[in-house]
């Protein structure tokens, strides 16, 4: 599936900007709707991107989200400069969270973020360097 | 169940509705944890929640939640209402606490997200 993307766009995400948190995922949703991607697939993508976007807003100084669309696949890459994740295996466990009370007040920080991204992905890779940042690669099939 | 019925059953006040209240919801979820909403709800659900911040509307947008009911009489702030209007997501407010609001809707036949199938209305008429 090495097809050239027929659409690609990169958005920047600002760490700590709670007012606009979710705006990138909202734009992604609109783009996929315009490209005629199936509603159920869009839902999987936007849930994954929203969780990823919120992680950047909470835990990083800044980040980017790139979406690439090919005839068969949707690829999402999220990179950030931030705290990073010390123990990825632990972070992937449902219910494990390092969230602050502020994050919990917003209805997040239940330890569902990364597991939820994985659940909505067909392929999911996460790598991180503590003190530098985190990289997520998400692939979701269109059919 | 139509939003009109939801409104009557919950004795709710409509804060914002894009058109009339004929819009139907297939199932409902009562939850204050947005991550759990993202993880466990299905499309076209009604979300009952005690959280009233912007993230509730965002979560509804991403998870294709059809309408929002704020419980325990907690009024959303202006920003939250404005975002719901922008996203055309209907918003209602009820004084009932979460358990009672969910219980009343369930009693009237609105199933939960684990019971109802996506894309089809439950027709067994509990």
Write the layout of secondary structure elements.
The complex is a heterodimer of chains A (143) and B (126).
Chain A: E1 7-14, H1 23-34, H2 39-59, E2 60-69, E3 73-82, H3 88-91, H4 101-105, H5 113-120, E4 123-129, E5 133-141
Antiparallel strand pairs in A: 1-2, 2-3, 3-5, 4-5
Chain B: H1 3-10, E1 13-16, E2 27-30, H2 34-40, E3 45-49, H3 54-62, E4 67-70, H4 78-86, E5 91-93, H5 98-107
Parallel strand pairs in B: 2-3, 3-4, 4-5
Antiparallel strand pairs in B: 1-5
Helix pairs in contact in B: 2-3, 3-4
Q: How far apart are the termini of chain B?
A: 13 Å
Estimate the helix proportion of chain A, in percent. 25-40%
C-alpha termini separation of chain A: 14 Å
**Mean pLDDT figure of chain B:** 92
Amount of helix of chain B: 25-40%
Number of helices of chain B: 5
**Structural class of the helix and strand makeup of chain A?**
alpha+beta
Tell me the name of the CATH class of chain B.
Alpha Beta
CATH fold name of chain B: Udp-n-acetylmuramoylalanyl-d-glutamate--2,6- Diaminopimelate Ligase, Chain: A, domain 1
Q: Which sequence of SSEs, written as H and E, runs from N to C of chain B?
A: HEEHEHEHEH
Major sheet details of chain A? 5 strands, antiparallel
Structural class of chain B, by secondary structure, is alpha/beta
Q: Give the total of domains of chain A.
A: 1
Radius of gyration of chain A: 14 Å
Here the CATH topology of chain A equals: Heat Shock Protein 90
What is the percentage of strand-forming residues of chain A?
Answer: 25-35%
């Amino acid at each position: 599936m090495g097809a050239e993307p027929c659409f690609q766009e990169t958005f920047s995400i600002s760490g700590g900007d709670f007012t606009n948190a979710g705006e990138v995922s909202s734009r992604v949703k609109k783009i996929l709707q315009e490209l005629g991607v199936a509603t159920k697939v869009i839902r999987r993508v936007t849930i994954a991107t929203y969780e990823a976007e919120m992680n950047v807003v909470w835990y990083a100084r800044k980040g980017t989200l790139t979406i690439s669309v090919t005839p068969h696949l949707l690829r999402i890459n999220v990179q950030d400069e931030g705290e990073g994740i010390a123990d990825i295996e632990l972070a992937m466990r449902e219910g494990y969270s390092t969230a602050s009370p502020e994050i919990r007040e917003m209805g997040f920080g239940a330890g569902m973020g990364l597991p939820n991204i994985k659940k909505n992905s067909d392929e999911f890779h996460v790598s991180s360097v503590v003190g530098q940042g985190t990289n997520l690669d998400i692939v979701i099939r269109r059919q | 169940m139509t939003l009109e019925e939801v409104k009557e059953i919950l004795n709710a006040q409509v804060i914002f509705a894009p058109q009339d209240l004929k819009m139907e919801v297939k199932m409902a979820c009562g939850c204050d944890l947005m991550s759990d909403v993202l993880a466990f709800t299905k499309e076209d659900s009604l979300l009952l929640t005690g959280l009233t911040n912007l993230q509730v509307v965002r979560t509804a947008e991403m998870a294709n939640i059809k309408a929002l009911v704020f419980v325990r009489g907690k009024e959303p702030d202006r920003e939250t209402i404005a975002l719901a209007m922008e996203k055309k997501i209907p918003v209602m407010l009820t004084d009932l606490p979460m358990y009672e609001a969910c219980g009343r809707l369930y009693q009237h036949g609105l199933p939960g997200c684990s019971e109802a199938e996506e894309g089809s209305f439950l027709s067994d008429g509990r």
